[in-house]
Amino acid sequence: MKKLLGIVVPILFWSNPALANIYLVELGLGGSGGIGAIFILFIILYGAFFGSKLAKAIIWGWVMFFVTFWYVMSLYLPDLNFIKVMISFFVAFAVLMLFMFIAEREKKKEQEILTARHKFFLKKVKKKKKKKKKKK
Q: Considering only CA atoms, which of 99, 100, 103 is closest in space to residue 111?
Protein backbone atom coordinates (compact mmCIF):
# COMPACT_ATOMS: atom_id res chain seq x y z
CA MET A 1 0.00 0.00 0.00
CA LYS A 2 2.84 2.37 0.81
CA LYS A 3 4.47 1.62 -2.53
CA LEU A 4 1.24 2.43 -4.34
CA LEU A 5 0.93 5.67 -2.38
CA GLY A 6 4.56 6.45 -3.22
CA ILE A 7 3.72 6.13 -6.91
CA VAL A 8 0.37 7.94 -6.93
CA VAL A 9 1.38 11.03 -4.91
CA PRO A 10 4.29 12.10 -7.19
CA ILE A 11 2.11 11.55 -10.26
CA LEU A 12 -0.53 13.83 -8.76
CA PHE A 13 2.10 16.49 -8.07
CA TRP A 14 3.49 16.29 -11.61
CA SER A 15 0.09 16.35 -13.35
CA ASN A 16 -1.50 19.63 -14.36
CA PRO A 17 -4.84 19.95 -12.51
CA ALA A 18 -5.80 23.14 -14.41
CA LEU A 19 -6.44 21.08 -17.54
CA ALA A 20 -9.47 19.47 -15.92
CA ASN A 21 -11.11 22.84 -15.40
CA ILE A 22 -10.39 23.98 -18.96
CA TYR A 23 -11.79 20.70 -20.29
CA LEU A 24 -15.05 21.21 -18.34
CA VAL A 25 -15.39 24.77 -19.63
CA GLU A 26 -14.90 23.58 -23.23
CA LEU A 27 -17.70 21.02 -22.75
CA GLY A 28 -20.00 23.71 -21.37
CA LEU A 29 -20.11 22.06 -17.94
CA GLY A 30 -17.93 24.56 -16.09
CA GLY A 31 -17.99 28.25 -15.51
CA SER A 32 -20.95 30.31 -14.38
CA GLY A 33 -23.51 29.13 -16.91
CA GLY A 34 -24.08 27.16 -20.05
CA ILE A 35 -25.39 23.70 -20.69
CA GLY A 36 -24.12 22.30 -17.39
CA ALA A 37 -25.96 24.92 -15.35
CA ILE A 38 -29.19 24.30 -17.26
CA PHE A 39 -28.79 20.54 -16.79
CA ILE A 40 -28.28 20.93 -13.04
CA LEU A 41 -31.25 23.30 -12.82
CA PHE A 42 -33.47 20.71 -14.54
CA ILE A 43 -32.24 17.98 -12.15
CA ILE A 44 -33.07 20.18 -9.15
CA LEU A 45 -36.51 21.07 -10.53
CA TYR A 46 -37.23 17.40 -11.27
CA GLY A 47 -36.33 16.51 -7.68
CA ALA A 48 -38.43 19.37 -6.31
CA PHE A 49 -41.58 18.26 -8.12
CA PHE A 50 -41.22 14.52 -8.72
CA GLY A 51 -38.71 13.37 -6.09
CA SER A 52 -39.28 11.61 -2.80
CA LYS A 53 -40.75 13.49 0.15
CA LEU A 54 -37.27 13.75 1.66
CA ALA A 55 -35.78 15.26 -1.50
CA LYS A 56 -38.70 17.65 -1.86
CA ALA A 57 -38.32 18.88 1.73
CA ILE A 58 -34.59 19.49 1.32
CA ILE A 59 -34.85 21.24 -2.05
CA TRP A 60 -37.80 23.42 -1.05
CA GLY A 61 -36.03 24.18 2.23
CA TRP A 62 -33.10 25.67 0.35
CA VAL A 63 -35.42 27.54 -2.01
CA MET A 64 -37.27 29.02 0.93
CA PHE A 65 -33.94 29.88 2.60
CA PHE A 66 -32.94 32.12 -0.30
CA VAL A 67 -36.43 33.56 -0.74
CA THR A 68 -36.68 34.39 2.98
CA PHE A 69 -33.18 35.84 3.03
CA TRP A 70 -33.99 38.07 0.04
CA TYR A 71 -37.37 39.15 1.45
CA VAL A 72 -36.09 40.05 4.93
CA MET A 73 -33.14 41.93 3.41
CA SER A 74 -35.54 43.86 1.17
CA LEU A 75 -37.38 45.03 4.29
CA TYR A 76 -34.17 46.71 5.51
CA LEU A 77 -33.14 47.93 2.05
CA PRO A 78 -32.80 51.73 2.53
CA ASP A 79 -30.10 51.41 5.20
CA LEU A 80 -28.62 47.92 5.12
CA ASN A 81 -25.80 47.12 7.53
CA PHE A 82 -24.07 44.01 8.88
CA ILE A 83 -26.51 43.45 11.76
CA LYS A 84 -29.52 43.59 9.47
CA VAL A 85 -27.91 41.17 7.02
CA MET A 86 -27.21 38.79 9.92
CA ILE A 87 -30.84 39.08 11.10
CA SER A 88 -31.96 38.20 7.58
CA PHE A 89 -29.56 35.28 7.51
CA PHE A 90 -30.73 33.90 10.86
CA VAL A 91 -34.42 34.19 9.92
CA ALA A 92 -33.71 32.36 6.65
CA PHE A 93 -31.65 29.77 8.54
CA ALA A 94 -34.59 29.18 10.90
CA VAL A 95 -36.84 28.53 7.89
CA LEU A 96 -34.25 26.13 6.47
CA MET A 97 -34.06 24.26 9.77
CA LEU A 98 -37.86 23.94 9.79
CA PHE A 99 -37.73 22.24 6.39
CA MET A 100 -34.83 20.05 7.53
CA PHE A 101 -36.90 19.01 10.55
CA ILE A 102 -39.72 18.06 8.18
CA ALA A 103 -37.25 16.07 6.06
CA GLU A 104 -35.92 14.21 9.10
CA ARG A 105 -39.47 13.42 10.23
CA GLU A 106 -40.25 11.99 6.78
CA LYS A 107 -37.04 9.99 6.92
CA LYS A 108 -38.03 8.51 10.30
CA LYS A 109 -41.52 7.64 9.04
CA GLU A 110 -40.02 5.90 6.03
CA GLN A 111 -37.59 4.00 8.27
CA GLU A 112 -40.43 2.91 10.58
CA ILE A 113 -42.43 1.62 7.61
CA LEU A 114 -39.42 -0.33 6.33
CA THR A 115 -38.76 -1.76 9.79
CA ALA A 116 -42.40 -2.84 10.19
CA ARG A 117 -42.32 -4.47 6.75
CA HIS A 118 -39.09 -6.25 7.61
CA LYS A 119 -40.56 -7.59 10.88
CA PHE A 120 -43.69 -8.75 9.04
CA PHE A 121 -41.65 -10.75 6.54
CA LEU A 122 -39.47 -12.21 9.31
CA LYS A 123 -42.61 -13.44 11.13
CA LYS A 124 -43.94 -14.85 7.87
CA VAL A 125 -40.73 -16.81 7.30
CA LYS A 126 -40.80 -18.13 10.87
CA LYS A 127 -44.39 -19.33 10.42
CA LYS A 128 -43.43 -21.17 7.22
CA LYS A 129 -40.51 -22.85 9.01
CA LYS A 130 -42.79 -23.96 11.86
CA LYS A 131 -45.29 -25.43 9.36
CA LYS A 132 -42.50 -27.35 7.63
CA LYS A 133 -41.30 -28.77 10.97
CA LYS A 134 -44.83 -29.85 11.92
CA LYS A 135 -45.25 -31.68 8.60
CA LYS A 136 -42.06 -33.67 9.14
A: 103
Q: What is the DSSP letter of 1?
A: -
DSSP per-residue codes, 23-73: HHHHHTSSTTSSHHHHHHHHHHHHHHHHS-HHHHHHHHHHHHHHHHHHHHH
Domain with 131 in it: 51-135
Among residues of the chain, what percentage have pLDDT more than 90? Answer: 29
pTM of the model: 0.59
pLDDT tens sequence across 70-79: 998 888 888 8
Q: Per the domain annotation, does 38 fall within a domain?
A: no
Segment 8-18 mean pLDDT? 63
Confirm whether 18 is domain-assigned: no
90 membership: H or E segment, kind and range: helix 82-135
How many domains does the chain fold into? 1
